[in-house]
Amino acid sequence: MRTLGVLLAGSAGAGHQNHQAEMYAPGFAAHPGFRIVGATEDRSGFDRADVDVVSVCVPFEHRVEVVTAALRAGKHVLVDKPVALTSAECAQIAAVAAETGLVCLPAYHQRFHPAIRAAREAVAAGRVGLPWNVQADFLVAGGGPVWPYGELLNFAPYATDAIHAVTGLPVTAVYALARPVEGPEDLVTLCLTHERGMTSTVVAGRTPPIAGVQGLSLHRYRISGSHGTLLADATRPGVTVRGEKGTRTAWAGHGTVHRMLTELHAAVTGGRPAELGPADALAALLLVEAAGESVATGRVVRLDNEQARVS
Amino acid sequence: MERDSMSSRPLGILVVGAGAIADLHVAAITADPRCVLAGFADMNADRARTAAYRNGGVPWTADLAGALARPDVDACIVCTPNDTHENLALRVAAAGKHLLLEKPLATTVEGAEAIVEAFTRRGLVLAAAHSHRFYDYARTVRDEIASGAVGRPTLVRLALLGGWIWPDWRSWVIDPAKSGGHALHNGVHLLDLVTWWIGSRPVSVYARGQRRTATELDVHDYLEMVVRYEDGAVAICEMSRAHRPAALAQRDVVVQGTGGLLTLTWDGEGPLLWDEKGAHTLDPGVAYGFAAQLGAWLDAVTAEGAGTSVSGEEAATAVALGVAAERSMALGVPVEVL
What we know:
Largest sheet of chain B: 7 strands, mixed
Radius of gyration of chain A: 19 Å
CATH topology of the largest domain in chain B: Dihydrodipicolinate Reductase, domain 2
Radius of gyration of chain B: 20 Å
Strand order of the largest sheet of chain A: 11-10-6-9-8-7-14
Helix content of chain B: 25-40%
Number of strands of chain A: 14
Largest sheet of chain A: 7 strands, mixed
Helix content of chain A: 25-40%
Order of helices and strands of chain B: EHEHEHEHEHEHEHHEEEEEEEHHE
Number of domains of chain B: 2
Strand content of chain A: 25-35%
Oligomer: heterodimer
Number of helices of chain A: 8
Number of domains of chain A: 2
CATH architecture of the largest domain in chain B: 2-Layer Sandwich
Structural class of chain B: alpha/beta
CATH superfamily of the largest domain in chain A: Dihydrodipicolinate Reductase, domain 2
Shape of chain B: globular
Strand content of chain B: 25-35%
Distance between the termini of chain A: 32 Å
CATH class of the largest domain in chain A: Alpha Beta
């Protein structure tokens, strides 16, 4: 396996989070296809010959500048999610990525979960027939808010991206509810209409801590089709361990970040686009913006999918 | 009509409408020593006679006025098509009889309010047959919320998914003029339950419906109804007759609260059986909802118990939600609950 050199750029994230240190750096370090060759807090090192991939976690105000600089320097990029705070900024990144033809992978790693992959393959094989509805829950217990951003921007795109990965149907309209009314939302409900008349209802948010739960307390998708019904519970596979300290689940298989990096590696070494690209990040942000408008106005907001198509 | 505990004559119950659901009510009557089946009234005399014959030859009639005038009829269970509920309920009230009325209370908000007013004015007991309230799963969820185990509910999911459709095109339940639409026919079960669980006032509904079994259906066989409550809680209710395979029967409950998470897994209610046809969950042998429902109504009628039956006011709220859901589907926009 060809080993790709990785430069870690930045250590910021949404709110208090540091995805570079907590997720991507350990992910690259543990993956046999990558080797971390350096780290930078500015743009130094983008011209290094031993760098193939730049892992970007710089603050949002520098995202466009840093990602496009890396791409123009001929490097493939992994971008922390959300890729940007606005669809306009994301569109700039998408345009440069398209121009350079390099891999620019937004880190919506949940779509690489084995349960979602299995669902995607089953749907693609016609096991449920033509999908007409999806229900999704993405609830994380504890961990603290990503202030000043809400979970509409932070968590909801994981679930909507997974739905897109499974069904391939873009969203055409959204009605959204969010709570609390004051401050960043911690719980959102998205009622989506997709192309081909498919509907979905997505719950995403951060809840108070639950004993024994590290992270996701509920992460599942029900896909209803013309010929079958599929329940994909992403808390599986897992064993349940009950002890003096309560109940927890565990599984030794590779996590979603590792699986995403495998796709990044395959795209870079295979000279093909990654299955997840800037267009997906742009679609996610357009949906976040439309949902925000729906929360503010109480109305159903239609999406213009032409905006999400990157030439 | 209040009875003392020394009374030897059990409460006489007239069943109005001898259709399929009547059997479940009659089974409950038979099992409760506090009441007896006084007879059947059905505008179709053959149906009334057949039901009477099958139940020990009790009196039957196609003349409701005559049946309501009988002194041994103390109360009625009305289980007729939804669009007849208002008229029949008002006649039962005028005759001075207590009433257990199949859901929905009425197919309009005005109709529901008129029924509630008529029974309140005469001091008669009105209960609506929101049978799910008396199933073990629903009471478990209610008890857990009431105990504070999950804090205040912020998000509730309730899905009742099935794949069987109503018998054929002649069935009144798929005629929206008679049933009020699926949100009123079956949707009210869910809308009532989640409102009972959450315990706040519903303020708006956004509903979407699909016609999966046949595009020619005049009702939606799949409903996705999202209710927003005054305290900020959100409920997602799915009612389906559209799922495949047709044998699918899935109940899904999620309650996310300020202090915890409650879930009911798809296989959480009964033993699992694998046979040559696949995996099945066996009947868990839980309490019979219709018996508990009848018991609660009898408690209220005889004033023996706390009166835990579903009140007319609560049933009228479910009608308002069902009407709002049908309107939301017709308009494609969220609708305020009146």
